Amino acid sequence: QARAFDVEVDLDSPGNGVLLAHGDQGGGYLLAVDDGVVQFAFNAYGSLSTVYAGPLGDAHRVTLRATTRPGLQWHFEVQVGDAAPVDAGDHPMLIGMSPFEGIDVGVDRRSPVSWPLFERHGAFAFDGTIRRVRVVPGEPAPDGPGMMRELLVQLGVAYE
Description:
The protein is mainly β. It has two helices and ten strands; from the N terminus they run E-E-E-E-E-E-E-E-E-H-E-H.
């Protein structure tokens, strides 16, 4: 997944709980609404950072945008409804064996991305109504594994 991507969460009714969790305590990210405030948590191989994107209010969409940066980094922004996007910082891409766990919608089952959120609420099932979650893949990272493979092939051909 060394590429840019957008995650669009469309809601029919607001609530509290996990909107989307991708990964686990070893690495991953999640979007959740806690006490009416949208939060983005990123677990960088055990180092957790959390950004509060603002109140959900009557918004019917939460968008997470990940763009690529050099050095196998993502830059994240979170947008709640029509509000201005909130900068959620640069984080290392999850590559190799992480995350071990796939994507959960409306709950963070098994191994949690955010231990503080899990300690407070458990799996934290969303109590509103999620209409859909759409993940839109973007461009591959310029220095991602796919590009390295292509470079190695070109080097091999040059020395044939």
